[in-house]
Design a protein that fits this description.
It is a single chain. The chain is of the alpha+beta class and 496 residues long. The chain folds into 3 domains: 200 residues, PAS domain (Beta-Lactamase); 71 residues, no CATH class; 158 residues, Alpha-Beta Plaits (2-Layer Sandwich), CATH 3.30.70.270. Helices cover 57% and strands 14% of the residues. The longest helix has 49 residues. 25% of the residues are buried.
Length: 496
């Protein structure tokens, strides 16, 4: 099955690496240049829009616009404006403004706006707008150019999304957006009356449709250029890679497949590679290493038949030594005080579990037990009492986890690896252990070294765990939390 699986060769990997690297470098460099130019152009248009709005704001009459805004906001004017818009009749608005004494100034300001707009080629729209409050979603147009009917004065329009929540108390930062009127760079400059009160804003929209069209074209050229450049570099790289890497490796692969060692064959008959490579690089080192390895294999096979008798004698000696070491190993992996497994035995056990994790072993739990008050017992009653205290705590653990290996991994730390029946009833076992320690600690009538106490934490293996150590850390964390709770309840010092 494995032999039929399509191979992803080193050559193909190198070709892919060259393509991705060259394209990333070419496209990245082109995009950086592109974005720098885009940034410069955007800053230019934003500056143009803001400067134009600011310049025109110096020509308008703020006091007149204050009066016009008051009239336009009135309910009477709004009803008349709606009627004029419905009937497409500018005359009624003109008569109303004449009656209010605003018509002459209105015409003067509108004429000024139109002249400025006509003389500035890049400006697409120029208008005067009165912003609503900070939370408003509509703004009112006060004055527009003569391409728009007079009854547009006082028209409330829904605020653009990009200006939602804008602070209109001063200059509004220029914004580039795309909407029903195409690509626009919009800027707004404030207009004040003679008392310094903010009246309205000059809105200036600079058209950017042509710029955006050119920008898309340039971006397309950037992509095409990057692809073409990548293909050219790739073609050159293929020739170099084939000569320097792919062909030598292919030849090496063919010769390796012909290697068939046997103890009754010579070097030539076994297919030892005979290519003379004088390259001072990694491929040359690979050739020489493989040649040396194949020669050593043949030599080993030639010698192996002469070693059979020695092997029998050696096996007998090793068997005797293993029997001796068996007794020594038991002692080496046992804790001398408590007789449970020691730290070395624990390390050996978790190595065994890790090697079988996910295949032979799919469920187990780690219980971390940290003995409380050992330092207190040692300091006040001597180390003999401390040893008796440790052994007593160990007996409590062993009595609960009868079917699981237990290890002493530190001075006052024990670990139980729950398997079988203990694992199946793990929560009941842990509760039983915690209860046993609680009951023992409450026996105030016995000597302190017989009042066994320990903090307990458990964690179960899940498929997301990488190894036993991952489960151990969670159990250790649970134990630490239990220990802190014990200290808090019993008001004991930090070091117990």
């Amino acid at each position: 099955m494995e032999q039929n699986k399509k191979r992803f060769s080193i050559g193909e990997k190198m070709y892919l690496f060259v393509i991705l690297t060259v394209f990333a470098a070419a496209f990245g460099a082109a995009m950086i240049t592109y974005l720098i130019n885009v940034g410069k152009i955007d800053r230019y248009f934003k500056s143009l829009a803001m400067d134009s709005a600011t310049n025109f704001s110096a020509f308008v009459d703020g006091d007149f616009l204050t009066e016009l805004a008051k009239v336009a906001e009135s309910d009477e004017f709004q009803k008349l404006r709606d009627k004029a818009e419905a009937e497409d009749d500018e005359k009624v608005i003109e008569e109303y403004l004449k009656t209010a004494g605003l018509w002459d100034n209105y015409c003067e300001q509108r004429s000024l706006l139109c002249r400025y707009l006509r003389n500035m080629e890049d400006i697409k729209y120029l208008y005067i707008i009165k912003w609503g409050g900070d939370d408003a979603d509509h703004d009112m147009y006060l004055l527009d150019d003569d391409d728009n009917p007079i009854y547009e004065t006082g028209y409330f329009e829904l605020r653009e999304a990009e200006f939602a929540g804008v602070d209109a108390s001063e200059f509004i930062p220029p914004t580039i957006s795309h909407g029903d009127w195409g690509w626009l760079c919009s800027a707004y400059a404030p207009v004040y009356d003679s008392d310094g009160n903010l009246v309205c804003h000059i809105g200036c929209d600079v058209g950017m449709d042509d710029i955006m069209k050119e920008r898309r074209t340039v971006l397309l050229y950037v992509i095409i250029g990057s692809v073409v450049f990548t293909l050219v570099v790739f073609a050159c790289a293929v020739l170099l890679i084939n000569k320097v890497v792919v062909k030598p490796l292919d030849e090496l692969t063919v010769r390796i497949k012909k290697f068939s060692p046997a103890n009754d064959k010579s070097y030539e008959e076994s297919g030892v590679i005979d290519v003379k490579v004088k390259r001072n690089d990694e491929i040359g080192e690979i050739y020489n290493a493989i040649y040396s390895m194949q020669v050593r294999i043949i030599d080993y096979l030639h010698d192996i038949s002469n070693m059979e008798l020695d092997k029998q004698r050696t096996d007998e000696v090793l068997k005797k030594k293993d029997e001796q070491l068996g007794v020594m190993n038991k002692e080496a992996y046992r804790d001398s005080l408590t007789s449970v497994g020691n730290k070395s035995a624990y390390i050996r056990k978790i190595d065994e579990i890790n090697s079988k994790l996910g295949s032979e072993i799919t469920e187990f739990a780690v219980v971390m037990v940290d003995v409380n008050r050992l330092k207190y017992v040692n300091d006040n009653y001597g180390h003999s009492a401390g040893d008796a205290y440790l052994k007593g705590c160990c007996r409590v653990i062993c009595n609960v986890f009868k079917h699981s290996p237990i290890f002493r991994v530190g001075g006052d730390e024990f670990v139980a690896l729950l398997v079988g029946e203990d694992y199946d009833n793990r929560q009941d076992r842990v509760n039983e252990l915690v209860d046993s320690f609680d009951q023992s600690f409450k026996k105030t009538t016995v000597d302190p070294w017989f009042r066994y106490s320990a903090a307990v934490g458990i964690a179960e293996y899940t498929t997301s765990d990488e190894d036993v150590e991952t489960v151990f850390r969670r159990a250790d964390k649970a134990m630490y939390d239990a220990k802190q709770q014990f200290k808090k309840i019993n008001k004991v010092p930090e070091r117990i």
